[in-house]
Amino acid sequence: MNQTDVVVVGAGPVGLTLAMRLGLQGVRVLLLEANQTIEKDLRASTFHPPTLDLFDEQGITPQLIKAGLIAPTWQVRNHPSHDCAEFDLSILKSHTAHPYRLQCEQWRLSEFLKTYIENHLPSVNIRMGVSVEGFTQTTEGVSVQTRAHHGPDEVWSCQYLVGCDGAKSVVRKTLDLEFEGQTFPETTILVATDFPFQGHLPHLSFINYCWSPEGTFSLLRLKNLWRVSLYPSLNESIDEAVQEDSVRAKLRLIVPECQQAHIIQVRPYRIHQRVVKQYVLGRVILAGDAAHINSPSGGMGMNGGVHDAFNLADKLTRVLGGQSQALLNLYERQRRPIAIKHVIEQSAKNRARMQEKDRDKRLQTLQNLQAVSQDPERALQYLLETSMISGLRESITQV
Ligand SMILES: Cc1cc2nc3c(=O)[nH]c(=O)nc-3n(C[C@H](O)[C@H](O)[C@H](O)COP(=O)(O)OP(=O)(O)OC[C@H]3O[C@@H](n4cnc5c(N)ncnc54)[C@H](O)[C@@H]3O)c2cc1C
User: What is the model's pLDDT at position 398?
Assistant: First the structure.
């Protein structure tokens, strides 16, 4: 039978980060990815300061910065009046080497990590086009069944199996663990366009969460495009809402000239918030979206998953080096409460704020946010939380 120390399932940002961190310690890792290439679908675009700090060591952060856009500020705006609360992240400069958000596609991170592993870490074996079909575990180890697009089915034996296989995780389902939480009623229609919103809306940041008389939208800038989050109109089905005419009609309400925009991609998605009951069961561990999912509002899901991977790599390396397996429970104690208290709670607050329809409540919220943004001490506390610095710090104090 084929043998390795750790099998990691899924070459998303979390699985690749974990594989890199383990590989840096010489751990033998088999990383299995069902897709034959890294998917370039539109998902995360925001990197928070502590994530950039963590990736600096291997030179991944400079590559991300080169490929992305530094966003020194972000805004909550009222459309079309353009009143806004703007948060300036430079206030974080004594807390991070990267006092800004970085706007860059998630798949670029995956590509950079994969290339780094292939060029520098001989103990990590990445197999694309190979999916994990199931596994069994004993107190001695785990036996993993795989299926390849090209090539024979295989069985691998390993000391630990880590499911970084995303929201629909086969690893989590095989463990039969409850994925507690809820699915929100709305569907978001994500539109990518190269229309230059910055030339039409005054004082726009690279990250803008906007209320409008018709509802809410967000405008997030990447190097060569804008990502616009839209919502179906009342009584409009999802099928109708993704049609070009409907998308153009909604874009026109943001900027009239935008009706003629070049639409690059339209993608509907639902929003869930769930956390698995247990992160560790025997020799099988969960990380990233396999363990927790949340509203993308505020850009925390991938960042939180990457923080899981850094934490888990440290514990796993020590356990493989002879320390007690109980250290893996410390990973769960350090990361699960943070997913609930910081990532899910904060992203749910962000979502609820933007879903508010009442004009007076919106105005009140905007005034509160403006007051916070203009008070250095309150702004600092707010940005430490929303930039995921507080959560990461709190996680390592858990014993
Ligand atoms: C529209 C949108 C915007 C978002 N914006 C942000 C943002 O700005 N910032 C942020 O932090 N987060 C954001 N997120 C969340 C972010 O995309 C996810 O949290 C992130 O992708 C989780 O990474 P992961 O590696 O855990 O899982 P995934 O990225 O889902 O990767 C899992 C991998 O596992 C593979 N896989 C699955 N099953 C198997 C199997 N059986 N065998 C082998 N391989 C398997 C899959 O093919 C996939 O490649 C956003 C999400 C969406 C939908």
Answer: 84
